[in-house]
Amino acid sequence: MTILVVGSVGLDNVETPSGKRIRTLGGACTYFATAASLYDQVSMVAVVGTDFPPEHIDFLKTRNIDLRGLEIVQGKTFFWAGRYGDDLNVAETLDTQLNVFADFRPSIPEDLRDAEYVFLANIDPDLQIALLQQCRAPRLTVLDSMNYWITSKRDSLARAISMVDVVLFNEAETKLFAAKSNILVAAKQILGMGPKALVIKRGEYGSILVTRGDGAAWALGECFFLTPAYPLERVIDPTGAGDTFAAGFMGYLARSDDLSIEALRRAVVHGTVVASFTVEDFSIDRLRTLTTRDIDERYQEFLKLTYFETLPGSDCECFRRPIS
After folding, report:
1. What is the phi-psi region of residue 99: left when phi exceeds 0, alpha when psi lies from -120 to 50, beta otherwise?
2. CB of 111 closer than 8 Å to CB of 42
3. Which of 11, 23, 169, 274 has the most Cβ atoms closer than 10 angstroms to its Cβ?
4. What is the SS3 assignment for 67?
5. Higher pLDDT pick, 315 / 254
6. 3-state secondary structure of 197
7. How many beta carbons lie within 10 A of that of residue 11, not counting itself?
8. Measured between alpha carbons, how far is 2 from 69 in angstroms, rounded to an integer?
9. Helix 171-178 crosses helix 183-191 at what angle (to 10 degrees)?
């Protein structure tokens, strides 16, 4: 299956308690494509400037990523500078320079408009809508966004959400978009707009998959799937974790070509596993050496970490025993 990703490719300055990197390879499209290429064929639609180091393009080619949709135009590449303190869930943006990304009007190459799996990374929702209109009949469309678009272009984002199958938000974005303080109520409201599923990313606390109920049904055991984060002794750089979560999620679905609820749950675990590798080094450095065997082994470890036995009896008989 072909996975099409549209988003940013950029250069980052990143500082964390573990160190600092200058003009390192970044951008949502970069993180996603690098990780998803371990699962299936990936085609990238993005833009960079003439200052973009050619060695980065050479690396993407080594991952067999289709770069026909990568435009190189006169000017400077998108640039972001950020700093993380002791709380690695919070990034302090020091500088953002859109550069050539400011005038980016992506056009999907004709033969890629038949892509079965489409990921719209965090970009202007008006562009996301335009891109969705260029796709012919994708099996799965997934959208990511952020608080900036929620507050500045809510109506456009709402329309884009109504056009896709899966939405990726973090917990704060979910509550902000729905204007609800309860995450379950907020999730139900977003799914009522049209998507079949919502994935709520919670950083070091894991993630929640919320799917539509059958008719009026809204049963926790049927509509909700919760996963913890994979435990790590040391996190180096959380930049790109959300994008590589999306890559593991969509990559597994594309490779298996299965969109059942059970597959969606397994895909969330794959997303969790891939993101756990990403944060072990700066930029995409850990992803450069990551293999499918690494992913499979950590997936099996995750199964052991989260396994528990069912209660004896079908009616939870343990609760009938008196407490002494």
Report:
1. left
2. no
3. 274
4. strand
5. 254
6. strand
7. 26
8. 14
9. 70
Q: Which two tokens stand for residue 41?
A: 């064929």
In total, the chain counts a number of residues equal to 324
Residue ranges and CATH numbers for the domains of the chain are 2-308 (3.40.1190.20)
CA distance linking residue 126 with residue 153, whole number of Å: 9
Of 7-16, 161-170, 219-228, the one with minimum mean pLDDT is 219-228
Q: Which of 89, 94, 119 is nearest to 22 (CA)?
A: 94
What is the per-residue pLDDT for 315?
A: 56
| CB neighbours of residue 42 within 10 Å | 30
Retrieve residue 304's tokens.
């052991």
CA atoms of 78 and 80, how far apart (whole Å): 7
For 270, the token pair is: 């794959």
Q: Which one-letter amino acid corresponds to residue 23? A: R
Find tokens 């950020």 and name the residue: 82
pTM value?
0.93
Phi, psi for residue 60 in degrees, rounded to 5: -60, -35
User: Which residues have a Cβ under 8 Å from the Cβ of 232 and sit 6 or more positions away?
Assistant: 276, 279, 280
Q: What share of the chain is helix, strand, coil (3-state, %, to 5)?
A: 40, 25, 35
E strand spans, 212-270 = 224-227
Nearest CA-CA partner of 56 in 276, 284, 239: 284
